[in-house]
Amino acid sequence: MATLDSVTSDICREMDGKVFSMPEYEPGSTEPPFHVWCRTTTVPAFGDEFDHIGERAARDPDTGKTCYVPVDMKYQEWKEKFVDERNKSNAVQVPQIRDETIRKVNEEFSQVLHNSKSTPISDKMILYNEVTEYQLNEGMNGPFVYNPELDVIQYNPSALFYKSCDMNFVQAHELTHRMDIIEYHSWVNKKFLQAIEETRKKVYDNSDKIKEWFSEGGKYDTDIALADIFSSLSNGELNSILCGGHSPGYWLEDRTYVCMEIFADMAGIDVLEYDSKAEFYGILEELYRAYREVTG
Fold first, then answer.
1. pTM score
2. Which sequence spans correspond to the domains of the chain?
């Protein structure tokens, strides 16, 4: 039984209402959790005589309050009746960005997205960008971060490096984190995980070339996105020859960070057509192939 609201992931929407026998019990496959912060749960199935009795909770798309629908209503039925039908007669409420600077850079980013090459991830990023909320948080250390608990992108104009940020990239990066958490789930994709391990050795074998790329005047000497990918693949051990990257402690704190940051970095490079996308057909070839499979 999935949660009937607008942020339920694709896999949970698909699994809602499916019935499995106990011998088929397998967490992540036939039983939740299906992903990080999964809200889907299990309920007993008694058979046709009882499974149509009662109600289940849902979120009213307009008020955000709890309401109740027939217990046998599946997610797709709920969406068609309570979301799609209402959207036909009501304009979608796009979150308003209060900060004038952030609003302007988001408008510029929107234009960049609409002018970008149409791909499954760029098309989806356009949709996400139109309905993602931005929230001021002066208490955080970094300039931008996606907060999955609040489902907002938070920003702090007082943070170190805020003014030097590539605003298009940080928006693409944080939107990808939201997309990843809600529907892609890169950190549990076996092919993506395998591609990361295969690429690690290539990175160390080519450390001299990478050092040349990021040396002063090198072709990627200011490419933070590519640097962060190499930082993650080396657990921060190559940071001294890169122009940026998270600390070794960050990479070792939670192994899912490696997957999620690489995925978001690749999406930013891909959608924004950075010069470093050339390495998607070179040293990062296996990773790019796996990334393409994840994004469809």
1. 0.69
2. 10-89, 100-184, 186-295
